[in-house]
Amino acid sequence: MPLIQMYFGKGALTDEQKADLSRKVTDLIVKETKQPQHYTWVIIHEVPVENWMVDRLTLPELKAKLMAERG
Q: Domains in the chain: how many in total?
């Protein structure tokens, strides 16, 4: 049974976008594996942006740093 997990910043997607993405991912898995669609599970995790780290910075810190560098 395929289990697809995706991670996005909290609020990055609307409920409609999440449902659409889940359907599209499921369709792709069904097409490639030839398994019934009810075998495919999709989990969309919404992570607060403060919990995403890049180069030891949270995303808000990284955004502020990049904005400051751009002037």
A: 1
CATH number at residue 62: 3.30.429.10
> In which domain, by residue range, is 53 found?
3-70
pLDDT digits (tens, 9 = 90+) for 33-65: 999 999 999 999 999 989 999 999 999 999 999
Exposed / middle / buried, residue 52 (Cβ in 10 Å: 0-12, 13-18, 19+):
middle
